[in-house]
Here is the input.
Amino acid sequence: MNKLMFYLAIVLGVGFSSCANKGNGQLIGSQDRMFWNDFDPYGMLYIPMGAFTMGPSDQDVPYTQTALNKTVSVQAFYIDETEVTNNEYRQFVDWVRDSIARRTLGEAGNDAFLITQNEFGEDITPGPQLNWVEKLKWEKPEAREALVEMFLPENERFYRRKEIDTRKLMFEYYWIDLREAARRDSREQGLVDRSVFIKKDVINVYPDTLSWIHDFSYAFNEPMTNEYFWHPAYDEYPVVGVSWKQARSFCIWRTQLLNNWLPNVGLTFVQDFRLPTESEWEYAARGGQKLAPYPWGGPYIRNNRGCFLANFKPLRGNYVDDGGFHTLKATEYNPNGYGLYCMAGNVAEWTNNAYDESFNSFSHDLNPDYQYEAGENDLPALKRKVIRGGSWKDVSYYNQVSTRTYEYQDTAKCYIGFRSVMSYLGRGKTAGTNSAN
Here is the structure.
């Protein structure tokens, strides 16, 4: 009887293992995982993890309480080699324009621009998706008739030019509020319904081209309003007139653009593109220099031949001695030690952080970060977002890597642009640590 039970146990064990796991009975982890290829995103540079002294390297008496210094650590990440250019941002604008056109044509009965079933013949949930394979032919009569609402009405056209109504370029996007989900009093809600942490926004993506005029009183900047964003002459110049919310929406779109393509080639998702934190921006701007006031080192703003090293306002009323007038190409000046262009001057740059004068006093020393999602009805002080780097219209003080200032999240200026970052997946590419103390 005991022998019979012994053989029965063996048979049951073999049957169980053959059904549940085809391995060798050892802990080998989940199998058939998607392949991961460590690649550098196009146009971005790798910044190794490291520790550095964040804040001014010298005493700044007027800003003693807002510009303290402290040693912090930042994990490895990627950052755009240059500020996002007009042509790069125009890809975003064109995508929004074309997606609206495809949806409009699909709703008008042209099914070629909508996908309603997956490869298995099943209806797509929750609804149809845009078909990006079918080419848009704006000149076809049926397209002109369906898309007439996308163009300026007759009474608003200049010399009867048929142009897209940029007021219609609205982008609907989503993000997950992980900080809200992580709050102790939110965890029970997350167990019940996680959708409350999925946030939605709709925003017009077209830059405020009139910012060239309304940012300056009694100055003639109409030529920049007329040509700067759309003319090929300015393709490689940094985009401006973009609010903080527009910059964030660009990063979310860029994430989905890549993540929708990766599975088609058998690769898994990557980290999200986003705006840099203050600490990431300053760490990258220093370029590995220890306690240097500028991205190129310092303490001078000219090289040994007397040439200025950034596009800024070098003297009172003199904007041209540095070689520029307004903005310049995003690669105009020599890069810093990490290979990044124009981390000082040209245009100031949005960061992801809300502005607080005492940030360095209360922030953590591990990936310092301070975020606040300000609503439309919040006080203006709560809508302040940190900008860094100085611009073509700023004096040299704002070019320093430690200088902090702010602008409001729903405003767009002709001297503020941005660049994206992406956290590195893993420890880092090189052994050891990198320090810029």
